[in-house]
Structure formats: structure tokens, C-alpha cells
Amino acid sequence: MIARVSTYSLETNSGETARGYAPLTMTEAPKSRRAEYAAATRTAIIEAARLLFARNGYFATKIEDIAVEARVAPATVYAVTGGKQGLIRTLVDLWSQAPIVAQTLSRQEALTDPDEILRDTAATVRAMRETYGDIMRLMLTTAPHHTEVAENLRVATKRYRDAIQAVAVRLGDVGGLREGMTVAEATDILWFYFGYSGYFTLLDDNGWTYEQSERWLVTQAATALR
User: Fold this and answer.
1) Nearest in space to 163 (alpha carbons), one of 200, 117, 113
2) For the HTH tetR-type domain, which residue ranges apply (predicted)?
């Protein structure tokens, strides 16, 4: 089942809720109905594009299809999101800048047990895969055939690897790496297990559950690092 654009991700990247506008605080003025409608329209278009891209692929999905799914005019899709390429950039940001990543790295600053750090990392990667796996698959399958999608994937992968590198640094700080292992080597090992291919291979090719995959990846990564 394809996940829809989540309230959580929208709150992080655009300040919107599932209804399309931020909750009021004591210092905020109420938003106009026009602003509420504009935000709700944008959310509907993003959700429609995500659903159709995952179902039909990037190339087979037309702006007209997205417009029908979102119940707006095709011109509105272009005006609000910049068309298909603008939608790809938006989906990439929803995934690669999801707040759970920064929250995980911040939480790990207080952890001193290497195994706990690895378990925490695996749980976050699993949560990301469960929530944004459709976007990852879309980017990985489309990038070889589309220059701009490939560039967006490059940006997302840089963010992903930077987060993995931060985990490697933390593991080094708490004595979680084998003597002589550099942060660069640890990053490569962590990427092997927690990058794109680890979960997808176990889930898609082997038919494992998320729980099985998570446990195995933690065990193997710990062995490889120490």
C-alpha cells in the first residue's frame, strides 16, 4: 500500500498540517480562507503525484493525471508545484529532510553504548523506509533515464550519506569501531547495511519482514564494525 504524504512530513517541510495550515498559537493571526485553500490544494497535488508516480512510474504519469487525481486544473499543478520536476524536488525534500533524521542524530549524542546506537540507527532507517520507500524506489528507477531526477537523487543521497557518516563519527567517539578503522571506512560499512540496498534486498528479493531485516542488519553491522 502506498503511503500518502504524511501530516508529520508536511509539518516539517512546509509548516502545514494535514488540513493544509499551521495550528494557531497565541501570537499568530488566523489565516485567511484563501490561504487555507491554497495550502490544501498544494497538499492534494503532492499526494496525488506521489500516488501516481509510485503506481505508474514517473514517465507514464501525466500532469493531466495528477490534476484529475487532485481534482484541480492542469494549470494549477504547474502554478502551485512547478510541474513534474517541481513535484520530484518536493518529494525528495519530504524524504531526505524528514525531521526524524535530525532527531535521531541529536538523540544519539546522549547514547554511549555502540549497540544501542546501531539499534537506534536501524530503527530510524526502517521507519524512513516504511514511510518514504515509495519515493526512494521512484528515484532509483527513474534517475538512470532522466538527468534532472538523477541530480535530485544525488542531492538526496548526499544528505543520506552525511547522516550515516554522523553515526560513524558517534560510534568512533564511544569506542564502537575496530582499532584502526577510520570514519570513512565505518561510513562505507554502515552504508552497505543501511543505505538503499540493504532493506530493499531483504524485503523485496528475500521476502523478509521489516522486523527480520532490522534485526539482521544490526547484527551484521555490529560484527563488521568491530
Assistant:
1) 117
2) 39-99
Contact 54, 2 (CB under 8 A): yes
CB 216 within 8 A of CB 199: no
Provide the pLDDT confidence category of residue 18 given band limits of 50, 70 and 90. Answer: very low
Cell numbers at 1, concatenated: 500500500
Asked whether the domain spanning 93-225 has the same topology as the one spanning 35-82, the reply is no
93-225: CATH class: mainly alpha
What letters, b where the CB count within 10 A reaches 16 and e where it falls short, cover 140-161? eebbeebeebeebbeebbebbe
Task: Say what the pTM is.
Answer: 0.81
Phi, psi of 189 (to 5 degrees): -65, -45
Contacts 24+ apart (CB under 8 A), 46-52: 46/5, 46/81, 46/87, 46/90, 46/91, 46/94, 47/4, 47/5, 49/81, 49/84, 49/87, 49/91, 50/2, 50/4, 50/5, 50/91, 50/134, 50/135, 51/2, 51/4
Secondary structure (3-state) at 141 = helix
* Residue 92 identity (one-letter amino acid): V
Nearest-CA neighbor of 101 among 77, 82, 86, 121? Answer: 121
Q: What is the DSSP string of 33-45?
A: HHHHHHHHHHHHH
Angstrom distance (rounded) from CA 34 to CA 42: 12
Domain ranges of the chain: 35-82, 93-225
Residue 6 predicted with pLDDT over 90: no
